[in-house]
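EI: anyone free to look at a 256-residue chain?
SC: sure, send it
EI:
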Amino acid sequence: MKTYENLKTVIENGICTITINRPDKMNALNRQTIEEIWEAVKEANGDESVFSIIITGEGPKAFAAGADIKEFLGLTKEQGMKMAKAGHDVFFSIESSPKPVIAAVNGFALGGGCELAMACHLRVASENARFGQPEVNLGLIPGYGGTQRLIKYVGRSKGLELMMTAEMLNAQQALELGLVNYVVPQDTLLAKCKEILEVIKTKSPFAIGAAIRAANAYDGTMKGYEAELTEFGKCFASEEIKEGINAFLEKRKAKF
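SC: here you go
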């Protein structure tokens, strides 16, 4: 992969690990870092050797402790909307990745950092992880999709409470609310993410992508069911369904 100024990337056993590398800034998401995340995810999705992606932060303290607040100074309404739109586009690219993306949350995930974690398909947190949307302390609201994704994960009432109070959640609270999938000791964080991905790797890549697309279509209306019908039908046009069904009937493991 290409070299980035604010990211470290490595591909190993089909897993691309993207590490936000600004530990002196608590891995804050400035504009350049967000742009580089978009480029790195796009590059990983275009690499046939990559099956899945992990996004994490450098060091033991922070996954990403919010946006770079200095960049907010003096923005007009239009400039603020343009900044938010750029964040939306990048985080949508993560959410719509056909390859599974796990956030390995190794510390503070606040503001844009929490929004980045929520854009990933799964979240594994270290025991010292902290989650929050503290934007109201600055006279702002979450602007990178957080108002929508937080409610999707923890419900409208709790989501609004967290946004209005700026209260932080510890890792166990996040687990109990359904915001994260697992909580593990920090020294086993990446290993747990890789363990999950190794299981997913044995499944049909086409079906994994179809499940992601169908799940992303969920909005509490018939739209999600319609997307499921479409993606279900597409699976029958894939060669992988033949291998999956034959393997089942022959009582052997499928080779996708």
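EI: The beta strands are 7-12, 15-20, 52-57, 62-65, 101-105, 108-110, 122-126, 130-132, 169-170, 182-184.
SC: 👍
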